[in-house]
Amino acid sequence: MSQTDFLHLMPLLILTVAALVNMLVIAAWRNHKIIYVITAVSFVAAFLSLFELRGITAYAIDPLFVIDGFGVFYIGLILATALLISMLSYAYFEQREEQKEEYYILLILSTLGACTLVISTHFASLFLGLEVLSVALYSLISYLRTRERSDEAGIKYLILAAFSSAFLLFGMALVYFSVGTMTFAGIATAMSGLQELPLLLLTGFGMMIIGIGFKLSVVPFHMWTPDVYEGAPAPVTAFIATVSKAGVLGIMIRFFLEVDGFRYPTLITIFTIVAISSMIAGNLLALMQKNVKRILAYSSISHLGYLLVAFLAGNQMGVEAITFYLVAYFITTVGAFGVVAMLSDKERDAELLEDYRGLLWRRPWTATAFTAMLLSLAGIPLTAGFVGKFYILAAGVSTQLWLLVAMLVLNSVIGLYYYIKVIAVMFQQPETEAETPKKRLRPSIYLASVGTLVVLTLLLLIVGVYPAALVEIIQNVFATAPEMVAR
Amino acid sequence: MSVSTMEAALLLAGVLFMLGLISVLIRRNIIFMLISVEIMLNAAGLAFIVAGSKWVQPDGQVMFIFILTMAAAEVSVGLALILQIYHQLKTLDSDAANFMKG
Question: Which Pfam families does this entry report, sorted A to Z (chain A) (predicted)?
Answer without folding.
Answer: Proton_antipo_M
